[in-house]
Amino acid sequence: MAYTRGDSKQIIVGAAAMFVSSTAEFDPTNAEPALPDFVAGTTYRDTLQDASVVRNVGYTMNGLELQFQPDFGEVQVDQLLDVAKLYKQGMQVNLATAFAEATLENLLVAIAAPVNDLSENVRMDNPLESGTTNFADVLELSSGEIGECPVERGLIAVGPGTGDCEAGSSIERIYVAYRALSIENVTVSAKRDEASMFEVSFRLLPANNGSYGKIVDRLVPASS
Predict the structure, then answer these.
(1) Alpha-carbon distances of 188 from 67, 118, 181, 196, rounded to whole Å
(2) What is the mean pLDDT of residues 90-117?
(3) Is pLDDT above 90 for 168?
(4) CA angle 85, 87, 76 (to 5 degrees)
(5) Is the N or C terminus of the chain more exposed, i.e. has fewer CB atoms within 10 Å?
(6) What residues does each domain of the chain span?
(7) Distance (Å, rounded) from C-alpha 145 to C-alpha 163?
(8) Cα separations (Å) of 184 from 96, 111, 149, 153, 199?
């Protein structure tokens, strides 16, 4: 076989659309909440857009970054100056992105707050004008309680995939995280020369089957 330098079709360029679960994490052992099935001739991004179990976070900044951090222990022996053996003793997976749409719904996810902390269309008295009322969305900035369980949510991102597809078809790469917790500091700002956005880092935890999630490359044939 003749030598080839590589295949440019395997290079991925482009952003992904990100969705977050509306209520809880994705549990592969009991399918709660259940994810929608693939629809022939339809990208999964369009399928998720109409699904009730997830919500599109809208615009993101700097794409998404999935980082795997294995932790290895060392075995040293007298006869070698370097280690004789490495063994895996830990694993950590993180997903980072930035929500460019500074909505209260996205802030709720970024600060890992429970759904009940966000109230929509609440009737509130205007403190500056007596006798008038307004309706507003309110995010309660609660400190939480001792022993309170951290909020885990499911994440899905759909972006471009690798490979060559037939005319009219497309290839998409789907990232699914079963249990995602926001663990880093989140800054909320209002600046004259910068857009307000929420940089968020999610720590992924394995489900009962030991899996953090899945990465799927899917061919979407052209609809007939």
Answers:
(1) 24, 16, 18, 7
(2) 92
(3) no
(4) 35
(5) N
(6) 23-125+132-220
(7) 49
(8) 10, 9, 17, 15, 9
The single residue listed with the structure tokens 């008295």 is 125
Phi first, then psi: what are they for 116, rounded to 5°?
-65, -15
> Which residues on neighbouring strands pair with residue 36, listed in sequence order?
none
Of 152, 53, 155, 173, residue with least CA distance to 99: 155
E strand map for the chain: 17-21, 54-56, 60-75, 85-99, 118-125, 133-139, 153-160, 170-182, 198-205, 213-220
| pLDDT tens-digit readout, 8-35 | 888 888 889 999 987 677 877 766 667 8
- What six digits make up the tokens of 224? 């007939």
The torsion angles phi and psi of 190, rounded to 5 degrees, stand at: -135, 100
DSSP 193: S
pLDDT digits 0-9 by tens, 115-140: 888 887 777 666 445 455 677 778 88
Question: What is the C-alpha separation between 182 and 150, in angstroms, rounded?
Answer: 9
Structure tokens at 122: 């609440």
Structure tokens given for 165: 């597809």
Q: How far is residue 75 from each of residues 82, 83, 87, measured CA to CA in Å?
A: 9, 6, 8
- CB-based burial, 139-175: b 16+ in 10 Å, e otherwise: beeeeeeeeeeebbbbbbbbbebeeeeeeeeebbbbb
Report how far residue 162's alpha carbon sits from residue 173's, in angstroms, rounded to the nearest whole number: 8
Asked if 122 and 104 count as a contact pair (C-beta separation under 8 A), the reply is: no
